[in-house]
UniProtKB/TrEMBL annotation, chain B:
Keywords assigned: Cell membrane, Membrane, Transmembrane, Transmembrane helix, Transport
Domain ABC transmembrane type-1: 90-282
GO cellular component annotations of the record: plasma membrane
Topology of this chain in the membrane: Multi-pass membrane protein
A molecular-function term among this protein's GO annotations: dipeptide transmembrane transporter activity
PANTHER family: D,D-DIPEPTIDE TRANSPORT SYSTEM PERMEASE PROTEIN DDPC-RELATED, OLIGOPEPTIDE TRANSPORT SYSTEM PERMEASE PROTEIN APPC
Name of protein: Peptide ABC transporter permease
Positions of transmembrane segments: 33-52, 92-118, 125-148, 154-173, 204-226, 262-285
Domain of life: Bacteria
Subcellular location(s) per record: Cell membrane
One Pfam short name: OppC_N
Membership in a protein family: Belongs to the binding-protein-dependent transport system permease family.
From TrEMBL, chain C:
SMART domains for this protein: AAA (SM00382)
Keyword Cell membrane included in the entry's annotation: no
Region annotated Disordered, chain positions: 286-344
Keywords noted in UniProt: ATP-binding, Nucleotide-binding, Transport
Lineage: superkingdom: Bacteria
UniProt source species: Brachybacterium phenoliresistens
Name of the featured protein: ABC transporter ATPase
Gene Ontology BP terms: peptide transport; transmembrane transport
From TrEMBL, chain D:
Cell compartments where the protein resides: Cell membrane; Membrane
Domain ABC transmembrane type-1, residue spans: 101-313
Secreted recorded as keyword: no
Protein name according to UniProt: Peptide ABC transporter permease
Organism: Brachybacterium phenoliresistens
Taxonomic classification: Bacteria, Bacillati, Actinomycetota, Actinomycetes, Micrococcales
Bilayer topology annotation: Multi-pass membrane protein
Amino acid sequence: SLQIRSRPDPTIGPDTMLVAGDKGTPTFTANFNPFHANKRTAASILYEPLIWINPLDGELVPWLAESWDQPDPQRIVLTLREGVSWHDGTPLTGEDVDYTFRMLQDFPANDVAGAWGRIDTLEVDGRTIAITLKSPDSPALPVIGQTVIVPRHLWEGVADPSTWRNEEPVGSGPFQLGTFTALQYTLDRFPGHWQASSIDIEHLVYPAASEELDLVTKGYDWAYAYMSDVENTWMAANDANRYWFPPGGIIGLHPNHDVAPFDDVDVRRGLALALDGRQVAEVAAEGYMDEASQSGLLLPNQEDLLDPSLPERGIIGQDTQAAIAAFEKAGFTYDGTTMRTPEGEPFTFAITTANGYTDWLRAVQEVQRELGAIGIAVDIDAPQPAAYEANLSSGDYQVAVGSSNGSDAFQGFSNLMSGEYYVPVGETSQNNRIRYRSAEADELITRYRASVDEAEQSEILHALQRLFHTDLPVIALYYGGLWGLYNQARFTGWPTAEDPYAPLQTYGSSPLLVLTRLRRAQKEAS
Amino acid sequence: MSAPETAPRPLPPALAGLRGGLRTIWTHRKARIGLIVLGLFVVLAVLAPWIAPYDPKDNSFGRSLAGSAQHWLGTTAAGEDVLSQLIHGARISLLVGFGAGGISTIISVVIGLCWGYVRGLPGEVINFVVNLFLVIPGLPLMIVVATYLSDGGISVIIAVIAITGWAWGARVLRSQTASLRGRDFVEAARFSGERAPRIIFREILPNMTSLIAGGFFGAATAAILAEAGLEYLGLGDSTIVSWGTMLYWAQNSNALLTGQWALLFAPGLCIALLATSLTLINFGIDGISNPRLREGSTGR
Amino acid sequence: MTGTETTTGPRDTPGGEAPLLSVRDLSVVYEPVGATPTRAVKDVSFDVGRGEFLGLVGESGSGKSTLGFAITALARPPARIEGGRILFGDVDIASMDHEQLRTQRQGGFAMVLQAGMNTLNPVRTIRQHFGDIFAAHRHVAPARREARAAELVRRVSLGPEVLDRYPFELSGGMRQRVTIALALSLEPQLMVFDEPTTALDVLVQHAVMDTIRALQAEEGFTAILISHDLGVVLESAHRVLVMREGRIVEDAPSADILHRPQHEYTRMLLSHFADPRAEHVSLPGIEAPEPAADGPDGPDAPAADGPDGPDAPAADGPDAPAADAAAADAPAADGPGRRRPGAGLELRVEGVTKSFAPPRRRAAGVLAVDDVSFTLAPGGATALVGQSGSGKSTLAKMITGVEKPTAGTIHLGSTSIGPLRGRALRELRRTVQMVFQDPYSALNPLSTVEYTLTRALANLTDLRGPALRRRMLELLETVGLTPVEQYAAKLPHQLSGGQRQRVVIARALAADPQVIIADEPVSMLDVSLRAGVLALLRDLRERTGMSLLYITHDLLSARLITDDILVLHEGRVVEQGPTAQVMRHPRDEYTIRLLEAIPDPARVHGA
Amino acid sequence: MRYFLQRGGWFALTLWAAITLNFLLPRMMPGSPADAAIAKLSQNGPVTEETRRAVEAQLGVPDGSLIQQYVDYLRQILSLDFGVSYAFYPEPVSGLVAQALPYTLVLVGLVTIASFVIGTLLGVLAAWRRGTWMDALPTVGGSFLTTFPYFWTSLLLLFFLGYVAHLFPTFGAFSATTQPGLDWGTVVDAVYHAALPATTMLITSLGGWVLGMRNAMITTLGEDHVTFAEANGIPGRTVALKYAARNAILPNLTGFGMALGGVVGGSILVEQVFGYPGIGFLLFNAVTGQDYPLMQAIFLMITVSVLVANLLVDILYGILDPRTRR
Ligand SMILES: Nc1ncnc2c1ncn2[C@@H]1O[C@H](COP(=O)(O)OP(=O)(O)OP(=O)(O)O)[C@@H](O)[C@H]1O
Ligand SMILES: Nc1ncnc2c1ncn2[C@@H]1O[C@H](COP(=O)(O)OP(=O)(O)OP(=O)(O)O)[C@@H](O)[C@H]1O
Ligand SMILES: [Mg+2]
Ligand SMILES: [Mg+2]
């Protein structure tokens, strides 16, 4: 059949990278306020955080803060890098850091990560930033560290930084804003950057048109998109096209623990045993992703955190007999065609997923099929994403498909399982929407917070994994992917499975690291 | 004018009218083609489980396969047989077409007739409601209602299309009713002691059969297109197999890139064919309600 | 040229002068898609000489218009000229191409269409209509067009101000005159008038016919006048063609037609023609009551009249037995609980006025009925006559409770009709019933006769089950539709106009009403059918003792079946009295005009 | 005067009801604007409670009772202040609409008018030359094209002429590198970008007008005044245009009024497929982003323009049809 090949724009020079990083809807609005949900994605590389966090495994990399220390679980001391300057040449100092945090305190709408939910006091003295936390809270470091710093001398005069669009951004990042039109904007290399020597790319171009078809046909160098049949589409369109799809989260069934019978661990185990995660992954992600480990970790990214005592690296395989046994233990009966609840009713329940999330939908359909095989009838509810969020937050669901457990392993467990976040059905919460309560989990989480000792933290994480594995707060199905697509003809040094230094996300702060590592394949003959 | 003495006892008038109408439609060349095409689709839909080579949701085949002897139209990105989906998709389109078309026709008949019959304040009130429905933008309204009722499956789609699609038909029926209302036989029925509902639905309604049938086929066409549009936008129920969802998945999995031409082409073509068949039938019905529209030439 | 040239024979041309129009063996067939073809004109041959005024009569559907279209080359599909030739002068019009045909419309043949009120484009002014014609033929210099248009409308007795009007701003008569003026503007040699006055009011009809006659006399064009009204044709035409079922059955000078009709059909037509002013008036099957001076006529007296029998046209078979039956078993057919004649309720109309809101803003309101009072005695028969728009129907609507009077009261016995609403109004239908004007639209085309009658019975009487059906069949018998079983099962389109009107009457009788209001019950029927229906109405009244309010603009029929008459003019009663007396000795000037408007061929051709 | 008061009264009442409906409809949708924003964010990973709070604070998600919101909403409408968009926070709604409206008005508006004009002319021709190919081609062809799902037609055109043949641009209303202005180059560029969407809309909407006009015209052609005009030897062209078409167009005007009024709503599917920055796309974003203020503003705009378009058609009707003149 007709093979669609890429046709790069010949006017784009070898020092310029075409990035599909920002999708116009259909056009761009000029909003570079890094604290806004609707900001242009490039705002995340115009401004820099104190600490760069690797979305793959949660590794902390010094960025504007060149080092840090946690003398006790309630204190953090960061040291600001020297020689950093804003795009307008003004040096970046502790004053800017101080301003940024005060501003976040004054305008909580901008405090997207919730830093002030944890900080008690913050003192800046020259390059030293000393923070006292409200309680022993060692995991607060990445939350506070990811705060991006904005220039005091430009922001101070702004009446309301939470509604300010910051159309002419001045940051400290490796690139500064070039031209901006409603359909495309460009970033130019910032020669005054503290890492200027590592920036080999002169220009970045962000067009608004970044549908999958555009990615394949317009010769993009870097894109982040799920591409169906990637081998025959993206890869076939250009010989230098490559992809790398590491896991970025666990897609699983989130039972509502306040709704019977999902409060019964045997039911949850029965469900987990009845499902073939590999097949679900195959159907949902065309086989590009693996079935997820019930350890709650992203494997292989977080292999080093894995509790070695878990069987099969925590993966629960399909075992229909065991599944039926588990259900029977919970008082269910199975007559070969229908699974009945202890009350004798046929066991049916609804799985909620968001309309338009096609991989989830396919996963649920596969789950529906597989549970159907042991006589459990599943209905699929697919409200619009907003309604899905509302249903989950308020607990108005039986079982939902959801994504959990990101790069920060502890944060993942804590957000999902901490009783601190528990609210009954009807009240809303964004964390622990599964309404899980476990004294053991709470105890482990508190202990972890109070610890700054890596060995102890690791040991607690192992315990959390075991709990996740046996109590199944969430039934892990498969890994959600980080869908990195790149072309290595003009730029090299891309992260790969062999060198997984960062994921290929074009949003967030990933590009900070990737763009400072890439090298031009051929230098201009000048 | 006078009937032969040996005339057979006539059919009940409604049936006789129907039979006469069908005959008139059948004599119309375009309408006949339409009836045949529609008939084919109906057969396809009814016999889908037996005709389709596979279960439309069976995803055990290779993904994005090109057409072959096993899979005439290839497979989807999820490994389902395109041909089987196409055949099963006819069911949804027909269901929506006839369901939503039928419901909206019923609404427009009831409202249009009452509107045309009553006078004074009630008439003004209906006028107001219908105008409101005409003024509120259709597709956006449909989208809003569809998102509101997003988890009811195909019946919600049918309801949404029906609710947003009746007003125009009501308006057409109203003017026809108003003109029939002035006819003596309506006044005469009143003199025979008939009550309003019976006059509206027994005396006036049967005289508008062809207009209503035309409205129905028009509404069915619109409903089929609307369903496809909603499904394509992802606002319907993406788990069902319909031509609209096929297009949705085709777009979603970049059928163009993966070379699944059939997945992209066939559903759209089927929608067009089905809608065309209804339109062709309507040509014939137009001929009944307006004899001047019957085939013929002006001799110019 | 004056109307003296009456020598033109039917087939031969006098004095070697070639006929202007010569039709030979013309056949026209309608071939509608998906329906059976109709042969509307069959082997018709005739000649028309220059300056002749030819009449063409025949009942509805006999093919008159079809013939008219064919000879003016206006036949359009589904009509097709199947055979024969039409020679205009010495040109076969079939040989003319489109453009030749078009250009010869000026100075050639013109046609004034039936229902002339609809032949003007509603969105163009009269001036624009003239302008289009002048532009099309360029036979009038642009500078003279304005004056010519004014001159033409003056010729049809209209003022130049109509030129700036739109058709809807003119009355029907004015529109008809405008179409004649438009046709005249073509300066045609031959003009075909297709029923130019049929839809018009009596007085207007009279005036328009006068105009046409005068024009023909002055301009000298050849005219063909198509009409179903023998009186009108005889009054105007030199020669008359009688058409029946697509054939010309008689072709003779007017005087011969009037005095020596040859064909049986012509004779039948003539027999239905009478002058209401005469001392004795009778039509086949029905005779007018004698003037009051001859003593009070008992209700039974005229019942002895024979059926339409011998005079009734053989062609209208199904109607014939009707009157027969009605006459034969009169009292026996009556249902249970029959009232004694004259024992009903009296209808009293006192000072009734009805005004309607102005149709347009700033226009004056319409005073449709103005202070009308009269009494309809039980068993009495009163005619309500007057020209169109005089308020007859409005009065009828008020009596039946459909409209509410603005002032005045209407009593039926002791019940006041004005305030009746809803249920009480439905109750009124048991006593007051209505016979509608147009039997074609008064019956639901999709309901059988049985259904129509049964519904009325079920709603208005207490009969149920088999009794209901029995009564239904009885009703059919009463109106003479036998065999009843057969008629019960028919749909309206399977019935002739007269039969339909009988069904309408049967329905009105269902509730055994005491008052029947018949609003122009025969005006849509062919002459041959009228007498039967009229006879039935009169007969029923006399047998059941119900009273009849008979609304019409046709004075002859009023004379035939009513005892008293009210002449209505612009909503007011201008004259009132016994029918025969008012007709024979009218006092009011308006009544006199009404009577004079009745065509009187005897005036032209001698008695 | 009374007549105008009455008409004005109904107009105002309809407007009020539509405005109220516009207020209620979005609020009937499940989920809040914050939920929509979070749904968007959560595609990049799990969202925490802290983020939700920040988002809610940012959007100033509606609080207060429904009545209070309604009163505020009415006040806003009266002062023509439509507030700040949620989906495009913190862009003001008026700015977004002002940006998108011109594209929609020009593209959809011109296409609608062109389609009506061309379709009507073809319908006139078809009826006048009934039974010939000039009848068959536009009626059958037009109605066949009308039955195509127009997003599908768009997709095919986009794929083949845009992505495969590279003949037309595939996205946007102008080139990425041009700053839209009012010079010749921009106009050419804009026309080039509008070509495919315009073609789709034109071919899928033409059939309706052709058929409507043809049927009305055939009916009119059968009327007596047309026969009379022919009997008077008025040339065919005059009869066709001044006697038949002139009268037959009247019933189609109502539909045209509705279509014109609908122009403001843009064409959601077409704009969506071609990434055209018009109101349709904006509305789609508003609906999926639970953006009450934006949705309300656009709905209001559509409602008012449909009402106004109908009013204009009424007036036009009055000019074209003397019978309705009062
Ligand atoms: N368009 C048509 N299609 C089919 N049949 C027609 C058509 N027009 C007329 N006829 C039939 O042709 C016959 C003659 O009709 P025509 O109009 O010439 O009668 P007419 O004598 O003018 O009657 P009237 O007095 O009612 O005008 C009738 O039987 C009629 O039903
Ligand atoms: N509903 C109405 N609204 C306004 N004016 C009306 C209405 N009905 C009748 N009229 C007017 O009242 C006057 C009398 O009308 P009506 O119908 O009673 O006359 P008619 O004598 O029955 O005439 P015809 O012989 O034509 O039937 C007319 O001028 C008519 O225009
Ligand atoms: Mg005629
Ligand atoms: Mg009347």
